[in-house]
What does this fold into?
Amino acid sequence: MTTLMIIGNGFDMAHGLHTSYGDLKEFVAGKDKSIYDQINDQLFIGNKDSWNNFESNVGTDDSYFENGFQETIENAYQTALDMDTGGDPMRGDMLSQMENNDYAREEEISNLLYLGYNHFNFEELYSKFISFLEEMLEIENKKSVKVNSVVKSKVKEEPNTKFITFNYTHTLEKNYNIPQTSILHIHGELGKDELIFGNQEDKLTNLNPLEFTEKDHESEEYERNCEAYNVLSDEEKECYFPPETGHDYSAHPTPNAVDSSDYVEQYNVSKEEWIKVPNIDEFDKFISELEVDKIIVIGHSLGLVDHEYFNSLEKKFPNAQWEVSVYESETRRDEVRDNFKKLFPAKKACFFTL
It folds into this structure.
């Protein structure tokens, strides 16, 4: 029989590595204040405490962009209304002037929407954040640490052990001489893989593109008149004098409507980078040939973001005994216990202090 150890970030922290979300918050703030402010404003809507549960908070509030898109639309619409619409008979062809004005308005609206969206600079945020995360972890990964007595005793007691680590670092390999064949880095390995980071897909919210348009009611009425005019017979058209231009309405473009739905779609697609796609196939492959009678969780909070993995373990090893580390802090200790109950309401676990 095999013991399976599940390793979370608390494992690295118990070895003195600065890998908490609080450490990450300070690291990003020290490296690039503008990115730090952008994360706070755009992802956490000014709530800096959201860093404490970064992954479960990211992507759950769109109000910053909702307000930003609406403001951009209003500015573009007002700008369009303030631009020239008619023609001057002293300057020549009235129809050409009107069409040129309409084209200029459409170009100005398009430009304002483009500038408004790019002002967010959101599409680059994920890659910049990940680069800072990797840089911080590389620094911590190079540090020499002391072996943790609790972990050492667990590893010594369970010589036939496999490891699934949610960490990107190599603390297990370097300090406990665990062969890589016995370890699965389920979220990627620092220096080798693309790191998997983010929130559950069903927890991320999206904006509805259809809600981010400003209709031009006068132009809509104008188009309705177009349709009425264009279905007339030639004889009827001779009796129908268009009230403003005296020409076929279908040649007149919509001048003032503002439609930012394409940019809203673009924003929604960019948010998908913040989805943590569970590596469940590799996870199941790793445990498929194991016969596990004990599962030891060290330094993992059993949070909702990773529930799919733990549900898979319960399904595969329903009779396994569980041992779960808790923190010295009373608040964090209760958090882990509560998370275990949410995962496995009918199960009991042996809790130990890390």
Summary: Residues 2-63+124-204+273-353 form one domain. Confidence is low (pLDDT under 50) at residues 243-251. DSSP finds 15 helices and eight strands in the chain. The chain has two domains: 2-63+124-204+273-353, 224-253.
